[in-house]
Write a structure and sequence with these properties.
Blueprint (H helix, E strand, L loop, with lengths): L1 H14 L5 H21 L3 E4 L9 E5 L1 H4 L1 H19 L2 H21 L4 E2 L6 E2 L7 H22 E3 L2 H23 L6 H8 L5 H11 E3 L9
Antiparallel strand pairs: 1-2, 3-4, 5-6
Helix pairs in contact: 1-2, 1-5, 1-6, 2-5, 2-8, 2-9, 4-5, 7-9
Length: 223
């Protein structure tokens, strides 16, 4: 649920206004950021299987370290703990942890039964991906809602606040459409190398943060 994860990153800015959008966007995308690295290292495995579902040609054979509920909970606790240690900002730490775990929840809704509860444990999935129209409708609605929440919590500092945000949105929508309409990758290594491009969204979200200001109460008082 690519657009859904992006939507969570946008929406949590309102709940944790003092936390950088770069981090808030990293949290729900973390599983997909580390997944191609694990693929290239041979730790996790995917099979190219055209027709696996109407939405994706991928058979997620094994990805317990990046995508199991247990490991994402541990990844979330680690990120939240480090952030709390560095900032003492409770809301930011909490929502970063929730953001990481939200990836499993949204993927469990989307995927067929291939989302592990823990490494070697049972796998679940509700199978939204068996319907292309339903998938596009749900993800589009989530992105629109997440953007609306973010726009209600921020204002642009100058014209770059518009450029940074809407170029980001345009890119993710193009990437999403391309993934749905393009052909399957030739092999898993090519897929993994291409998936590493998703790391560009982290500094891009940080750039958005520099060009927009938060308009909700951050809980910080001045002397």
């Amino acid at each position: 649920m690519f657009l859904g994860h992006i939507a969570v990153g946008f929406a949590t800015k309102r709940a944790a206004p003092r936390t950088s959008l770069g981090l808030l966007m990293t949290a729900p995308m973390l599983a997909d950021l580390v997944w191609p690295i694990f693929l290239l290292l041979g730790v996790e495995h995917v099979r190219i299987d055209p027709g696996n579902t109407p939405v994706t040609p991928l058979d997620f054979v094994s990805y317990p370290w990046s995508h199991s509920l247990l490991m994402l909970t541990l990844w979330g606790l680690a990120l939240a703990g480090v952030y709390w240690w560095r900032t003492r900002y409770r809301a930011g730490a909490m929502w970063l942890g929730i953001g990481v775990v939200s990836h499993w929840v949204l993927d469990a809704v989307s995927h067929r039964a291939d989302m592990p509860l823990w490494p070697g444990g049972p796998k679940v999935g509700l199978g939204l991906w068996y319907s292309m129209p339903a998938t596009v409708m749900v993800e589009s609605a989530m992105l629109a809602a997440g953007l609306a929440i973010y726009l209600g919590a921020t204002r642009m500092n100058n014209v770059w606040g518009r450029v940074s945000l809407w170029s980001f949105v345009g890119l993710i929508v193009l990437a999403y459409v391309g993934a749905l309409t393009g052909g399957p990758p030739p092999d898993s290594e090519t897929l993994a190398r291409f998936a590493l491009v998703s790391w560009i969204f982290v500094p891009w979200a940080w750039w958005i943060e520099q060009t927009r200001r938060t308009t909700v109460d951050t809980g910080v008082t001045s002397d």
